[in-house]
Structures are given as structure tokens and as C-alpha cells.
Predict the structure.
Amino acid sequence: MKEAIGLVETISIAIGIAVTDEMAKTADVEILEATAICPGKFMVLVAGDVSSVEASLERGAAVGGDVVADTLFIPHVHPDVFPAILGATEVSALGALGVVETFTVASSILAADAAAKAAPVKLIEIRLAKGLGGKAFFTMTGEIYDVEAATEAALAVAKRGGNLVRSVVIPRPHEDLGPKVF
């Protein structure tokens, strides 16, 4: 059961791969993503039950040692986070559109989780640092007042660590925007 998410980001690709292996061997977790990211880092993102993700994350951080750049643990992550990370969210109608851009992968996932928990919005995508110079962003849709409330919750999280780049809320996106951007 996917109820928790954990991430280890390293400044070494080689050690990042070793971290991934150890995390998978330590507990019953699903590797959602294990990849090199800009600028020359590696991230591994796992999901599973709370105790398994916690044990896997602890082992990953220990193996990574002094090359661990960041970690993330969300014990009761919003269920919409998983399909958004995998780019598998189906959006039948695009309502108001919110976009939050951050400097780190961890801050984007935390902000997206906060947004989804704050208001009834649909997370569309959480794009994690690939081809983004190490930055990340997420998109969401819904009624304008819900997207605004969710964006405010996300901004509060992203600003805490000084990781907010920018955000926008587009009340009525052009009909061609969705298929071209997502």
C-alpha cells in the first residue's frame, strides 16, 4: 500500500545508484524514480507503507553519507501525488491552472502534497528536475478559488526553505494550453 513517500538526492551519480540498491533491499518499497538529474546529481524516490519507507530512507541516507544533498519523508502523502509524479494523471477538463516552481525536488513534492491536502484540486504533473537545471515544478487544476487556496498552501511550504522560484494561477487557460504543456 502506497501511503508514504521518501526521497534521497545525492551529489554523486555512482553513490546514488548504490543508495537505490540498498533502499530497495532494506524494505518492501516501490522505486518510483531512480535517475540522474541536473546538475550532475542522482535522486531515488520510493513509496510504500510508512514503516517500510522510513526504514528504506534511513538506510539510503546512511549509505549516501556525505554526498546526500537532501532527503524527504512524507508519511501520509496525498494519493494524487503518485500519478502526478509518474505523469499519469488524466485531466478530462482543464479548469483554473496553478503552477508552482521550486529550486529542489523535495520542496516541489512537499508543496504539491500541501496543495492537494488544502483544497479539492487535481494535481496534473510533478516534474522533477530532469532537464530543469535541478529545479522542479508542479501543475494543478480545479475551480479558481480552490486553485488559489491550494497555491497559497504550496507557497507557504516552498517559502519555508527559501525554495520558491515563482508561481502563477491562470483563471481561464486557453483551450490549447493543456495539450501543448502537459
Summary: The first strand starts at residue 4 and ends at 10. The mean pLDDT is 94.
